Amino acid sequence: MTPNKEDYLKAIYKLGGMEILVNNKQIAEELQIAPASVTEMLGKLKREELIHYEPYKGSCLTQKGVEVAIFLVRGHRLWEVFLMRHLGYSWSEAHEDAELLEHITPSRLASRLDKFLNYPAYCPHGSAIPQPDGQISHASLQPLILLPVNTISHIRRVAEEKELLDYLQASGISIGSQVQIIEAGTYEGPLTLDLDGKQVQISYKAAAQIYVDETQRP
To answer: What is the pTM of this model?
Structure first.
């Protein structure tokens, strides 16, 4: 299977394609490609029985497609752990190179890498690493923008997008940090945070892609 096809399967998986139909526009935006290219590729994936595709409605993964997507995600996140823990990569560097390594990682290498890393549960960006059998843990999280002002929570995951990762790391955001919104600007203005006792300001757009422990809203 080509890396291009694998990227499509992983994109559908990340967009929820194990349970729901994902439309072509979502896939095009996720992969940053033209919608016309998406239609052509989905036809190929359907013929290979990797997806169920309904024109004008969307696509979801078959069991065969799920297995491929989960294997890719598992390899990607294991490599991110290795690159940051042992080679001093930044958040965005680890994500960028893991995008390449995931396509050339056989199951034997993934298993030994997992053992070498002492079976990590999460990647450096906070996403759960699938088990060899495909099982994956799901924590109850919410976007930081939904956290009530002056409520304490903890950062558990951030979206994996290069510019965002660089921005967040430069701002001092890290997984596990205690966070509290001190002030939220009007009209989706910047948020002022107490981050492990240090005051930090980040954009609303970035905060929407940071996920914290779910809290009970009054």
So the answer is: 0.90
